[in-house]
Amino acid sequence: MSRLSEFQPRNENRTNEKSREEEIRQKYDQFSGMNQSQLNAELFKEVARQKSAGTFDYASLSNMVEGLRGSLPESDYQNIKRILETLR
């Protein structure tokens, strides 16, 4: 059973959803013009930042990639797996 403290007022939920949508749009705009090399560099910087902060979770990332496998072309999946292996 959920705790009362875990519930959010409806308006607050909508505000969080809009904030999240805006954040996603901003990230898309930030990364959409980058080539593969630039994207990889950004990825490795972010992973390094997370590792130094102790927040990097390889298992969760790997599980997410496995969950996406059915919706990705096999070549993209294999490319992501290769990148994932370098992040360990």
Task: Pick out its properties.
88 residues; mainly alpha; 4 helices; globular
Residue windows where pLDDT falls under 50 for at least 5 positions: none
Structural class: mainly alpha
**β-sheet strand percentage:** under 5%
Q: Determine the number of helices (DSSP H or I, runs of at least 4 residues).
A: 4
Spell the H/E element sequence: HHHH
Count of strand segments = 0
- Report the average pLDDT across residues: 84
Task: Explain the overall architecture.
With 88 residues, the chain is mainly α. Helix content is 73%, strand content 0%. The protein contains four helices and no strands. The protein has helices spanning 10-31, 36-53, 58-68, 74-86. Helix 3 (58-68) runs antiparallel to helix 4. The longest helix has 22 residues, at 10-31. It is globular and about 40 Å long. 0% of the residues are buried.
Short description:
This protein is mainly α. It contains four helices and no strands.
Question: What topology emerges from the helices and strands here?
Answer:
Elements: H1 10-31, H2 36-53, H3 58-68, H4 74-86
Helix pairs in contact: 3-4
